[in-house]
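PROTEIN DESIGN WORKSHEET
SECTION A - STRUCTURE
LENGTH: 208
TOKENS:
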């Protein structure tokens, strides 16, 4: 599991606990998703390439650095939407490319319904954003899409992952790092993560 990172940051642990709480209302839930996304994105981007850049301060020239890579944020609709602002706030010049997938309730397989990626890739690094990695079907399908698009460097940033989903990602895309706030026990009979947090889309959008 060398490519799987579960955050140990106290702020992440504190916020995920509040996020899981059944008493947390959608407004607070959205705030927590956004904040956790920012903290995990900070961790997930620690190896981005930079190039040297000089800048004039009011007093002198300082040696600095600027991001060398063009970054794409790829939220999986709809629950991934809530993670965008947190990640985007750290990298305001990132592009945001939405992928629409839902998990068919019977087959549990991902069904793609939205993809407006242009023919040629416009970014060199993609961060897939989705709070839940359950069976892993949605994450694997999204990496498939991005690889076909031509992106070489892909990372998955989630909040809660199940061992089943992590295994599927590692079987299909072992080189894709997985950044999570927590790795849970497993899936129930409906492929919901236990203990998890319930339905991440419903809890954000008040539709449950
Ligand atoms: C949830 C979640 C993931 C997917 C994870 O989305 O946001 O995209 O399930 O499950 P998997 O790992 O088994 O594929 P859902 O399909 O409920 O769609 P929604 O966000 O539109 O509600
Ligand atoms: N999708 C969710 O929103 N929650 C789960 O536990 C599994 C899939």
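SECTION B - SEQUENCE
RESIDUE ASSIGNMENT:
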């Amino acid at each position: 599991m060398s490519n799987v990172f579960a955050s140990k940051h106290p702020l992440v642990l504190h916020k995920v606990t509040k996020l899981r709480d059944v008493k947390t209302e959608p407004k607070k839930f959205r705030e927590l998703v956004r904040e956790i996304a920012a903290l995990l994105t900070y961790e997930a981007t620690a190896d981005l390439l930079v190039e040297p850049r000089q800048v004039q301060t009011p007093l002198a020239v300082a040696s600095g650095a600027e991001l060398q890579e063009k970054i794409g944020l790829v939220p999986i609709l709809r629950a991934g939407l809530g993670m965008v602002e947190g990640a985007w706030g750290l990298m305001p010049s990132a592009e945001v490319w939405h992928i629409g997938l839902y998990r068919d309730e019977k087959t549990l397989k991902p069904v793609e319904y939205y993809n407006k990626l242009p023919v040629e890739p416009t970014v060199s690094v993609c961060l897939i954003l989705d709070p839940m990695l359950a069976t892993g079907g949605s994450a694997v399908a999204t990496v498939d899409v991005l690889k076909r698009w031509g992106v070489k460097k892909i990372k998955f940033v989630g909040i809660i992952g199940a061992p089943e989903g992590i295994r599927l990602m590692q079987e299909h895309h072992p080189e894709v790092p997985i950044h999570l706030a927590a790795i849970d026990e497993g899936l129930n009979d409906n492929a919901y993560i236990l203990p998890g947090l319930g339905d991440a889309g419903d809890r954000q959008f008040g539709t449950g």
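SECTION C - NOTES
The helical segments are 10-20, 26-44, 81-90, 137-149, 163-172, 200-205.
The two ends are 34 Å apart (CA to CA).
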